[in-house]
Specification:
single chain, about 500 residues, alpha/beta, Arc Repressor Mutant, subunit A, Aspartate Aminotransferase, domain 2, Aspartate Aminotransferase, domain 1, four-stranded antiparallel β-sheet, 16 helices, globular, disordered C terminus
Length: about 500
């Protein structure tokens, strides 16, 4: 069970006190620092601090802050070092792994205006009992948005609000059960398999080909439910063509199976119209998932599912005890944000910004690719590209190099079931703005130059062994290096 957010702060402070890392009268970090470190709201922090003060762990001084009380500590266990108050990215120049949101262009003033309106005009609604599957205004707003923008033709009753994609997966497990077999894309989103492991479920990885999930392999797997991303697979970037979509739907119909379609970033297509989901081709065997974490910000934990009509009543009956745990206030704010058109306006503005960044990035990276023999795979949607380098350096070594350059980056192998060197990096360019993109490209060039250098060091170590041993290594060397070794006769003894 997911821990209540304020309890993480509560337990962290107690741990520091018990292990005498924070001594009596020590001034603990401010509410703002705690909020940033734990990625929670100031209200959540305040709740934790009030609880700690009421139990006598800390005391407050007006307009100064909170301090540790003078108490005798008896507990003796290992300290919890999960959190620290150094900002996560202080030691890193760029994080190419994740979408960090668009804080510069987020419409905070409009969001606050909507919040004030709801607090003034909907006091009674806020104090009503929360609705089990999400607040009706938000479910209706999402249904209207999907119908108008993605041609989905759904009712609000098919919409289930969840606190993020992982919560959606857990809900589906509880609904469909633990006695069936689940299928996962390989490569693909690894959190799903982690959730399956925790639930002790049977699952199988299904490989991809150039058009998405391999149907022949899917048929062989005998899975009952399969997870797919059709419009922008992560991390491959594949957009499933219409022919493969019909093949997938036919598989579901023939086997009375369910397709879980994760459309996590459909709104972030940077060119052309939005691609309609698989759900529009078959609304009988598909559960549609989406989230607002990518479009709004990662800390905004609201996602949703769209059920086939035939499953709505069954879901309501079976899942009535699983209450929606998203704040009612946040749901109502988002409902108004969508209904007023502010959400679409923000998306258009965000896409324009990312399109501008992408154009600069692709231009610079194309030049860099030509210089270093890189293969750049990019698409018109999504916020990442794949970059393959020709130098056979292990992914582990590449991550070590990246760390020395103070950058965070994922190799493609991170998203594969069987971890093997892919010589491919996933580069998310949402961390850029027009002021730092030149610096970012420069650091990426340093990374690929360092990878190239590491490869040559490896190669010449092999040459050395070849020259001073009887082992035939030439067959395993890259052609240019092999030619050098063949042309260079052994004329001296190896140094001691």
């Amino acid at each position: 069970m997911k821990k209540i957010l304020y309890l993480e702060i509560y337990e962290y402070v107690i741990d520091k006190i018990k292990h005498k890392q924070w001594l009596p009268n020590f001034k603990i970090p401010s509410k703002r620092k705690l909020s940033e470190a734990f990625n929670v709201s100031l209200i959540t922090v305040a709740t934790a601090l009030e609880q700690l003060e009421s139990e006598g762990y800390i005391y407050s001084k007006e307009r100064i802050g909170y301090f540790v009380c003078d108490i005798e500590v008896l507990a003796k266990h290992e300290p919890n070092n999960k959190y620290n108050f150094e900002p996560n990215n202080d030691d890193y120049l760029f994080d190419f792994r994740n979408n960090n949101g668009d804080i510069l262009n987020f419409p905070f003033s409009n969001w606050q205006k909507i919040e004030r309106k709801i607090l003034n005009d909907n006091k009674e609604l806020l104090f009503n009992k929360p609705q089990s599957f999400g607040e009706q205004p938000l479910r209706k707003a999402i249904a209207n948005y999907l119908n108008n923008n993605l041609a989905m033709n759904v009712s609000y009753k098919q919409i289930i609000i969840t606190s993020g994609s992982d919560n959606s997966y857990n809900n589906l497990i509880n609904f469909f059960g633990r006695k069936i077999k689940y299928g996962l894309e390989d490569p693909g989103y690894q959190n799903i398999s982690s959730i399956y492991k925790l639930n002790d479920l049977k699952y199988q990885y299904i490989p991809l080909d150039d058009n998405g999930i391999n149907i022949d392999e899917l048929k062989k797997s005998k899975v009952d439910i399969v997870h797919v991303s059709t419009n922008h697979h992560y991390p491959s970037g594949i957009v499933m063509p219409i022919s493969r979509r019909y093949e997938l739907i036919k598989w579901a119909k023939d086997n009375d199976s369910i397709i879980v379609e994760d459309d996590y970033d459909v709104e972030l297509r940077l060119k052309g119209k939005l691609i309609n989901p698989l759900f529009t081709l078959d609304d009988n065997n598909i559960v549609y998932l989406n989230t607002f974490s990518l479009t709004l910000n990662p800390g905004f934990r609201i996602a949703y599912m769209v059920l086939p009509k035939r499953l709505v009543n069954e879901y309501e009956n079976k899942m009535s005890t699983f209450k929606c745990n998203v704040s009612k206030l946040e749901q109502l704010i988002l409902a108004e944000f969508i209904s007023s058109g502010a959400y679409e306006r923000y998306l258009n503005k965000k896409k324009k910004r990312y399109q501008d960044i992408r154009n600069i990035f692709i231009e610079k990276m194309t030049s860099l690719s030509n210089k270093h023999n890189l293969i750049l795979k990019e698409a018109d949607l999504g916020l990442h590209v794949l970059i393959t380098y020709p130098y056979k350096v292990s992914d582990e070594k590449v991550l070590e190099i990246a760390k020395t350059l103070k950058i965070k980056i994922y190799p493609l192998s991170h998203f594969m079931h069987e971890k093997k060197d892919t010589h491919t990096l996933i580069v998310n360019y949402s961390c850029f703005n027009k002021d730092n993109i030149e610096k970012g490209i420069s650091i990426l060039e340093q990374l690929f130059e360092s990878i190239e250098k590491a490869w040559f060091n490896q190669a010449f170590c092999l040459i050395y062994l070849l020259k001073y041993s009887s082992i035939d290594l030439a067959a395993n060397l890259p052609a240019p290096i092999a030619e050098i070794t063949v042309a260079a006769p052994v004329t001296a003894s190896p140094p001691a």
